[in-house]
Amino acid sequence: MKFQDKLQVLRKQKGMSQEKLAEKIGISRQAVAKWEAGQSYPDMNKLIILSDLFRISIDKLVKNYDDENCLYGYTKQDHYIDEKVIDFLCRAKKSTYAGKGLESTSSRPNSHDFQYVENDLKYIDTYLGGEKFAGEEALWCNDFPFWSMNYIGRIIADGFSGDFLKECLLLVPKEYPYRGPLVYQNGEYKYHCIVNGKFEWFNGYEEIFYNDIKVYECIFHGGCIK
């Protein structure tokens, strides 16, 4: 793949127009158009800016590759910082288990599976068990996996409410798009969630109290994959 083709792919994956890219670099839209048409080539200073912007080495950016995966190996993992992906993940969570969505076909014996798709993005949540459970949520772009989260939890006392848990998960915040909000209460039920790390690499713990007695706990961790 030549530089002009890679530049178009990278720009579109970022959801940027030629005008927007030109604005970030400090040049005219016509200059970007000429780069993508192969009519001109950026100088070293502009290549450094493009490298930082798209999180791809200059070497990978300028060298020709027959295999497009040489490019995708860098750009797909960059998807996680895109606000579009965070919004998609939150919508997917609200539309599946938390929103009492319909289960999809089991991927493993007796597994519970949920799937949500929008254009090139796909979300799959699959778990085993009930009162004691374990599962995984993951994201794909054009069937290329780039993020995953594993979780394991259990009910530890009487009074647990699955509906309250789903109520919490429906409130998943964009700042911490993993489980529920950091703190939430409804009547005698209280929900707490602790998160360490960032979207690229994180771990956390959630718990539910009923009448000040802990009735549920869940541990989760995950991050970007390639």
Automatic annotation (TrEMBL):
A molecular function (GO) term: DNA binding
Keyword Hydrolase: no
Domain HTH cro/C1-type: 7-61
Cross-referenced InterPro entries: Cro/C1-type_HTH (IPR001387), DUF5680 (IPR043735), Lambda_DNA-bd_dom_sf (IPR010982)
Pfam families: DUF5680, HTH_3
Keywords: DNA-binding
Presence of the UniProt keyword Glycosyltransferase in the record: no
Highest taxon above the source species: Bacteria
Protein name according to UniProt: Helix-turn-helix transcriptional regulator
Taxonomic source organism: Crassaminicella thermophila
